[in-house]
Prior knowledge:
Blueprint: H1 3-23, E1 47-48, E2 62-73, E3 76-85, E4 93-99, E5 123-127, H2 139-153, H3 155-158, E6 160-170, H4 172-182, H5 187-190, E7 205-209, H6 233-238, H7 246-251, E8 265-270, H8 279-291, E9 295-300, H9 312-326
Amino acid sequence: MNMKAKRTLYRVGYVVLACMLAALTSATMGQDRPGAGQKAVAQQKPEAGAKRPGQAALPANVKLLRDVEYAKVGEKSLALDLYLPDHPAGTKMALVIWVHGGAWRAGSKNPTPAVALLRDGFAVASISYRFSQAAKFPAQINDCKGAVRFLRANAARYGLDPNAFGAWGSSAGGHLVALMGTAGDANDLEGDVGGNVGVSSHVQAVCDFFGPTDFLAMKGLASTIQHMSADSPESQLLGAPVAENPDRARQASPTTYVSKDDPPFLIVHGDRDMTVPYQQSELLHEALTKAGVASELYIVKGAGHGGFRDPAVPEKVRAFFLKTLKGASPAATAPQAGGK
């Protein structure tokens, strides 16, 4: 395939990503609908070029392993979908792990916008986790870390590079991937979900889309949600009102754990987000920068809680993961607009 054809393919792929990002408005902090139940299967059969509901058809060279059980907590099966593009024998694929939003109480692991990265040779995992109705914090980050350990422990089986794991999430998922990045060494958040104790749960890059980063700093910020109230998503996550439990709120806040050894971050937020105020992303970016961590904050002008239509957003995501996980540059760059 000549270079012109490759660039056309990349651009088509990222038009798809932009459309999916615009459609992910269901991943809001105020969403109340229950998520789709995830059932584990005894054996996962690869499906080539399969299509998930609400998701663009996958490239023909991609194998999809549905509902791979990475852990079981009581009677609850925790599963992930694993998308594996063909790759040359003897090579290992960088992995991007998608964590969905939904106020920690709803949402689903599919569809995932991360499938657009398959065209650049990334493997993609989209994970489920326990909701706050069933388990309080830190169950959710325990689950995420358990998924990372499972994938790293099985890296050889799936052809993954265990030293090139990235995490990407939106809203509540943005909060969880930010914690995955800043709290890599926080023993009180590690847990033992799924076993593989002793395997690292660290990730090497984090893309946080409009996630809460400092629960106590929500007070006084413009929002359609009363984040400090007893029935807010954050309070339901903690199992107690945020304002009355500052220690628990700090434990759940990614800014608490920022240190100089954190991985690179790309943070994206709309300046008209009335669900999670954009100042939450500013706080995390400032803390990371002060600690000497590579961090880029991109404020999407005129955008709310997701639904981004800025063409720079998908290109920034792609460029970020290519650089941090593959040490490469994108083949084509979209015009930059409205950034900070």
